[in-house]
């Protein structure tokens, strides 16, 4: 049954591609009433068909079915499909608690149905309801705390949930335009904060799948930021900015191809090396060199480093934020600065989480016998992974072709291969990004480095990552083999602190601080007893009064010496 369903999803993806190319399908795009025929919705079916074809679990296929209903359905059917995806993602052991955990999202979906059916009465509530209804689909939370309940393992069903959430956010223009200006700013700031917290949760996660779940949540936060930018552009009548926001949204849709490949690669790694717990992994870069190289391409595409798709999205997003309408003065620029600060911090933390994944999983040495016996998958499975990474590379190197595909054309269509401008343009048209040129430059420099390394360091006849019982001392050139540098989110900060302050000096300062605390702890009761003897009649000022007097004294001092 599962192979038949996977073949059906592949056929649906092919039909979606043909529809985007302008080929007339039998029955038209939406033969039944109540189904959507929008170009952006059909474009969402392209990655969803590939995800359904690559899925192997029944739960993932059920989530894909709900996501398809959310994409092509009308206002009522789309919310029903989103609720279907919410229920399908819950594991069997969590079913008794599902009604409590998913109740707010399901209630928000019910209210969203009413608002979408009657937008004239409460259309201004649509952005807030959409955020409440999709936070479970996108895995978003303002809390930086990581727990197994709040951060599930990454599977194909999470990508289907992302597709359903994107379909719901695409229905925002159905609401009234009264509160678009206010909602736009709120969504931008909230999306940047969610991006930062999702990146932090990815950094704190203890296994590879939950790290990917946190990173996928950061991609979902970018969807909210782009929705806010689109609302601002439509409210201020800025067609160039609205078009640029729509094109960036389609680039985020292209990242779903990357996530599909990452899910397949992690399935292959888990079959070979066991559970992807970070404190038990290592050495996969030597044991599985071909799969590790493909996995590194996926990580680079999601990291935001040039020249792949993540960098193109960040580049477009920064230009969109710079083109936001705002007044003069620091007060008008403060929300933009805060949004850029949160986005920059989130990007840096995201990069640190990806560096941690590479350092732990691919570098170092294996820690279990099963990990030491891992090897590259067989020929057919390796060929499927190679085919899965090809769309990622094509959409990253030539994003103009991807945008031409998903933009849709009329019946005279099939003109997308003739897209003249394959570069990405900023909203004002003053800046252009050519990812293909960056890829050519990186390939040229990388080739030179590989040649020089081969000339200087010949490869041994058999390269292995040794695993020995008893955890031998770590060589100085293999710092990520030390278990203490791999566990917990505080270790990267400790490593940076070691670069700034010498460990001996830090230990001495810590001993002095502890000694001072002990002396203060001994002298504090004596001081309290002395003050209690001095107060007249036992009257003592309260803590708020003392704090207010201290603040007044500080202000007087500053004014006197100003």
Automatic annotation (TrEMBL):
Keywords in alphabetical order: Membrane, Transmembrane, Transmembrane helix
Entry keyword annotation includes Cytoplasm: no
Residue stretches spanning the membrane: 7-27, 39-56, 63-87, 107-133, 154-172, 184-203, 215-233, 239-261, 293-318, 338-364, 385-410, 430-452, 539-560
Superkingdom, natural source: Bacteria
Signal peptide: none
PROSITE patterns documented for this protein: PROKAR_LIPOPROTEIN
Annotated protein name in UniProt: Hydrogenase 4 subunit B
Source organism per UniProt: Komagataeibacter europaeus
